[in-house]
From TrEMBL:
GO molecular function annotation: endonuclease activity; hydrolase activity
Basic and acidic residues: compositionally biased ranges: 35-49, 60-71, 277-289
Organism: Neobacillus rhizosphaerae
UniProt keyword terms in alphabetical order: Endonuclease, Hydrolase, Nuclease, Signal
A Pfam family: SNase
Group of enzyme by EC: hydrolase
PANTHER family on file: EBNA2 BINDING PROTEIN P100, SERINE_THREONINE-PROTEIN KINASE 31
Residue ranges annotated for the TNase-like domain, each copy included: 72-205
Gene3D superfamilies reported for this sequence: 2.40.50.90
Name under which the protein is recorded: SPbeta prophage-derived endonuclease YokF
Record region (Disordered): 24-75, 215-251, 264-289
Biased composition (Polar residues): 24-34, 50-59
Length: 289
């Protein structure tokens, strides 16, 4: 009887242990499955976060493009400022004359030409700008040189356009637009209009600045100012208009070859020998070299 009882008890114990092991295994399996699901969930969240981050970075890069210095600009060393729109620089190891692209300032030093109002002021302002920082040149799509062999370029100092400053302050007009479109022409026109509306410097005298050049000469008794941006006394007094022939009458030459025998550098508009047909580039100078 005791033996039978012991066997029964042992049987119940075995059943209990088996059930316990099965429960433990089920719990372990369930825990593993839950852990696996959590890992997968974390992976999915990370992937989603990374994906969204990449998308946001891509969108931000589109909305905010990176700016960089214009690689078309080349540094040069200033030798001297010739006048308001011409300078001499060292470029690629050579001394070069640079004519400012698209702008024109009154004449001060051109042969057979009087000193025009605002010429001295334009030169001084130009010289001031050039000596304020690093000079770089930028060329446009057209001819790199003019008929005199001068470089045609946009001029910058510390990244700021010298042409724009001269136009905005009324020292220069837009001129020599031969091969449009030009990169900065629209901006230059806006700058010129701004100075016109304010009647600054060359635009302060009606009829002085035209689409063909500048009219009039500075009275020799007038003293130009040294202050850039101001309207000087030299700009207020002019002699005879450059459109009026002088008292010596007219001189006739059949062509530029003949004219240059007497006037090697050509003549300006208003000179007795000037003829419009010899001024092919319409710059106010006939037979100039």
């Amino acid at each position: 009887m005791k033996l039978v009882l012991n066997l029964v008890v042992s049987g119940f114990l075995l059943l209990g242990l088996t059930a316990c092991n099965q429960g433990s295994a089920e719990k372990t399996s369930s825990t593993a499955e839950q852990t696996s699901e959590k890992v997968e969930s974390v992976k999915e969240q990370k992937t989603d976060t990374v994906g969204k981050s990449q998308v946001n970075q891509s969108e931000n890069s589109k909305e905010q493009p990176q700016t960089k210095e214009d690689s078309n600009q080349v540094p040069v060393t200033l030798v001297e400022a010739v006048d308001g729109d011409t300078i001499k620089v060292t470029y690629n190891g050579e001394k070069e004359t640079v004519r400012y692209l698209l702008v024109d300032t009154p004449e001060e030093k051109k042969p057979n030409t009087c000193v025009q109002p605002f010429a001295v002021e334009a030169y001084k302002r130009n010289n001031q700008l050039l000596n304020s920082g690093q000079i770089t040149l930028e060329f446009d799509h057209g001819n790199k040189r003019d008929k005199y062999g001068r470089l045609l370029a946009y001029v910058f100092v510390n990244g700021a356009s010298v042409q724009e400053t001269l136009l905005k302050e009324g020292y220069a007009r837009i001129a020599y637009v031969y091969q449009p479109p030009y990169k900065y022409l629209d901006q230059f026109q806006a700058d010129e209009n701004q100075a016109k509306n304010k009647k600054l410097n060359i635009w302060s005298q009606p009829g002085f600045a035209t689409d063909r050049g500048f009219n009039g000469c500075v009275n020799s008794a007038a003293k130009p100012t040294n202050q850039p941006g101001s309207t000087s006394s030299s700009s207020k007094t002019t002699t005879q208009s450059s459109n009026t022939p002088n008292s010596s009458g007219t001189e006739f030459f059949a062509n530029c070859t003949e004219l240059r025998k007497k006037y090697p550098d050509g003549v300006s508009k208003g000179h007795p020998a000037y003829q419009a047909k010899m001024d092919r580039d319409n710059d106010g100078y006939a037979c100039d070299r």
